[in-house]
Write a structure and sequence with these properties.
Layout lengths: L3 E6 L4 E6 L4 H9 L3 E6 L2 E6 L2 H34 L10
């Protein structure tokens, strides 16, 4: 078992060292589906995206998810501002 795993995705993520054994199931799925290739260099396994189409798909997914997250942050800010300006709720003090 290699001691280091590196993910190489130029222009998308960069080089990310990860503990060995972190991706055993994902590794098989991604390699079998042709999304990544793996290269062993000594005790290190390097994973790289299999092609430019995969990188393009990941960039599109990142852009879409970033836009969704930005929209959620705007909504959260609006809700927090509305909550801060709302009058306090009446309390029911029965004794």
């Amino acid at each position: 078992m290699p001691s280091t795993v590196s993910l190489v995705t130029p222009g998308v993520i960069g080089l990310l060292p990860a503990p060995a054994g972190m991706f055993p199931r994902v590794d098989g799925v991604l390699r079998r589906s042709g999304i990544v290739i793996s290269i062993r260099e000594g005790s290190t396994v390097i994973y790289a995206l299999a092609g430019g189409d995969v990188a393009e798909l990941l960039r599109a997914a990142r852009r879409i998810l970033t836009e969704l997250l930005d929209g959620q942050n705007v909504l959260l800010t609006e809700l927090q501002q509305a909550d801060a300006s709302a009058p306090p709720l009446p309390t029911n003090n029965r004794g």
